[in-house]
Each structure stands twice: as C-alpha cells, then as structure tokens.
Specification:
Mean pLDDT: 74
Shape: globular
Order of helices and strands: EHEEEEE
Strand order of the largest sheet: 1-4-3-2
Distance between the termini: 17 Å
Number of strands: 6
Structural class: mainly beta
Strand content: 35-45%
Length: 98
C-alpha cells in the first residue's frame, strides 16, 4: 500500500480538513496546485494511527502527466505521497509503469 485518500468536492473542504486535523494535534502537510496522478490537486497529508499516509484532496483540473510536477534534485520523476521515513510530503524516485 502506497497511501490512502479521501476525495472531497471543494478546496474549502480540504482547508476544513486541514484545520480539523491540526486542531486534533496531528501534523498536516498541505500541497496546493500540485500536479499528480494526471490531475491538478489541492491536498493535505496526514499520518494515521498506524503511521499510514492519508491524503484529503480535491481534483481541480486535468494534468498532462502522471507524476508529481516537482522533480527531485537530480531531475528524476516524482510520485505522489509522503516519505515514510520523514513523515512529510516529498518526491520519491520510482519507476512509473503504465
């Protein structure tokens, strides 16, 4: 399992989820206007009780690529999701298969 996600209908719902999760004492990691998985999204990442990564996200538009729009320092493609060892969103180098 890479991560779990909850799709919502609006950016306001992502903002509300971010505030609700932060108020509950959870570390939140928002990403706005990020291209990932063929979609432009606003999202917030959080860790569940078993340290599993969760995202609450809204799809705002289509994107031309599968991978996250940011690239790692060596220019390698990135995939969606937080880094397990750092508990924060990042780019992880991974071969993408279609």
């Amino acid at each position: 399992m890479d991560h779990l996600g909850v799709e919502v209908e609006t950016g306001e719902e992502v903002t509300a989820a971010t505030e609700r999760l932060a108020t509950a004492g959870l570390a939140t990691f928002p990403e706005n206007d990020t291209s990932c998985c063929y979609a432009v999204q606003d999202k917030v990442w959080v860790r569940g009780p078993g340290a599993e990564p969760w995202e609450v996200y809204v799809v705002k538009a289509d994107a031309d690529t599968l991978d996250k729009s940011t690239a790692s320092s060596d220019g390698a493609a990135c995939v969606c999701g937080p880094a397990p060892e750092q508990n924060a969103p990042c780019c992880a180098e991974r071969e993408v298969t279609s």
